[in-house]
UniProtKB/TrEMBL annotation:
Signal peptide: 1-23
Keyword Signal: yes
Protein name as catalogued: DUF3187 family protein
Pfam family, one: DUF3187
Record's keyword terms, sorted: Signal
């Protein structure tokens, strides 16, 4: 009799463990949208809200992440020529402090260095039938910004810091069900670049609302955010606009350990002194995510469209995310 009871207890214990283990695996599965920051020249060195998931993480779950980004910038207007490289390293941690509150803190360092993307950019545009937008008339691998009107004459940006910033985001869960998630959040952003043409100390804030839907392998994420920028000066010594909006939507199709993602980000113009940068920029992102047991690796291609002078001609991001 004791043997039968012992076996029964072992069996029931095993049945209890299986669902718990499966639940844990599901908890570790949801990484939300791609972890890719704005690539547009003005928005990438200021505070731009991220596309975020409307779902929360499980209570007390944490995630640390690191991303590396390389981009090729090109903009030519009547008053400004910007033809340079942009590289960014980002590291941070997310923490679901309670069922309702989530904290996300990260550090970003952006700098200019020759990443030799010009040839690849021009090949990509030719291969897919995109216009070179005047890039073919400039020598390759330039790292320069020039404007006679504003007295800007930078022949080589290599080694210059573009951004050195810390961002803290606090999210609050409004609604969550099996298929729907709705959250709001606010960010504080502090930038300090000590020297060089992008030297600046600035402070910014943002608010945003995030909605997500998921059903089986289909995941949809969307965000609407507004940034508020203190009275700071751009490289032309003219001020940035004091606020701008960000709208983003993304879709992921999940198949086993593979995630295929597509996103569109729209950033309102941030300055009024140049016709290219005063218009909104649009970025299309194509990403691939490989899921490990408690981590994920992401690779993303970013291409601008519609306004070809107000975003990176092309950019790539590689990221690693680990939950614990």
């Amino acid at each position: 009799m004791m043997s039968i009871k012992a076996n029964l207890l072992v069996t029931l214990s095993g049945l209890a463990v299986v669902p718990a283990a499966q639940a844990q695996m599901v908890d570790f599965d949801d990484y939300g949208p791609l972890r890719v920051y704005a690539q547009s020249p003005m928005q990438s060195i200021n505070h731009s809200p991220l596309l975020r998931s409307g779902f929360s993480l499980p209570n007390d779950q944490k995630e640390w992440y690191i991303t590396a980004n390389i981009g090729s910038m090109w903009s030519e207007s009547d008053v400004l020529l910007a033809d340079y490289y942009q590289n960014t390293l980002t590291g941070g941690i997310k923490w679901q402090m309670s069922d309702a509150l989530m904290l996300d803190i990260n550090y970003r360092w952006g700098f200019s260095a020759d990443n030799h993307l010009d040839s690849l950019t021009m090949w990509f545009h030719d291969a897919f039938g995109f216009d070179q937008n005047g890039r073919q008339d400039q020598a390759k691998h330039q790292n320069q910004i020039h404007s006679d009107k504003y007295g800007i004459h930078i022949d080589d940006l290599s080694g210059e810091t573009l951004e050195n910033a810390i961002t803290a985001y606090l999210g609050y869960q409004l609604l969550q069900s099996e298929h729907h998630g709705l959250s709001i959040g606010a960010s504080l952003y502090l930038k300090s670049v000590d020297s060089g043409p992008f030297a600046e100390d600035s402070f910014a804030q943002s608010i945003q609302i995030n909605y997500s839907y998921k059903n089986g392998p289909h995941h949809v994420n969307s965000s609407l955010g507004v940034s508020f920028i203190e009275d700071t000066e751009s490289i032309s010594t003219n001020s940035y606009d004091d606020r701008f909006t960000t709208i983003a939507i993304g879709y992921e199709y999940r198949s086993g350990r593979h995630g295929w993602l597509a996103e569109i980000h729209r950033y309102a113009g941030l300055v009024s002194w140049d016709e290219n940068f005063s218009d909104a920029s649009h970025e299309a992102l194509l990403g691939y995510r490989y899921y490990l047991n408690t981590s994920a690796i992401e690779f993303t291609l970013v291409e601008n469209f519609e306004n070809m002078d107000n975003s990176a001609d092309i950019a790539y991001t590689l990221g690693y995310r680990q939950k614990f």
